[in-house]
Design brief:
This protein is an alpha/beta fold and about 200 residues long. Helices cover about 30% and strands about 15% of the residues. The protein has two domains: about 10-65, no CATH class; about 95-195, Aspartate Aminotransferase, domain 2 (3-Layer(aba) Sandwich), CATH 3.40.640.
Length: about 200
């Protein structure tokens, strides 16, 4: 038996491989109609308590001048501790694509990627938010966008594909630890060693 609780007043108990109905936690139609919603990826239903927390957080924007940075600073502290870093190394941005665009822009402005002798490494079928900024950078500087192809042979992994490429010109590696299209896991430690 595993007990899961984010709120001391509510504890969910999960028995090995089974879960009791959690329908009451969501705003779903009466189950008598037979509705079962299984898209738990991009469009999973929001839990009622998440809506309440989100509504409260949005309410703070009614008077933004009263908002303090304490929660943001605490988040940075905790994340820095998690990855064994300094708080000053952590930046909070509105979304990942915004952060990646900033990084790509700064890589160009600082000369980290400056021309045909440089390359940025991405994956085939990678999420566009982590490809489009690098495409723009490469087009603007003349650098190469090096794309690791999907593994074509049984037993080969994305990591194998990435490591088999010519890395002589690679200045930036922009890839996720898990590919969004199929859940493939990349061995980031091996890739980091190659860097």
């Amino acid at each position: 038996v595993i007990k899961v609780s984010r709120n001391p007043s509510k504890t969910w108990i999960m028995n090995q491989g089974s879960l009791t109905s959690q329908r009451h936690l969501f705003d779903l139609p009466d189950s008598k109609g037979g509705l079962i919603y299984l898209n738990g990826a991009a469009r999973s239903p929001m839990m009622k308590h998440v809506l309440a927390v989100g509504t409260k957080a949005l309410g703070r924007k009614l008077k933004p001048w009263t908002m303090k940075n304490e929660a943001e600073n605490r988040t940075k502290e905790l994340f820095a501790k998690l990855i064994d870093s300094k708080t000053s190394d952590i930046a909070i941005t509105p979304c990942t694509s915004h952060a990646i665009s900033l990084i790509a822009h700064n890589a160009m402005k600082t000369g980290k990627v400056s021309g045909v002798m440089d390359a940025v490494l991405v994956l085939q079928n990678q999420m566009s938010s982590n490809v489009l900024p690098w495409q723009h950078l490469c087009k603007s500087t003349g650098a190469e966008l090096l794309v690791a192809p999907a593994p074509s042979k049984p037993g080969k992994s994305w990591t194998d594909s990435v490591l088999s490429l010519d890395w002589k010109k690679v200045k930036i590696v922009a890839m996720p630890p898990v590919l969004w299209t199929d859940g493939s896991v990349l061995d980031m430690e091996k890739i980091a060693e190659k860097c």
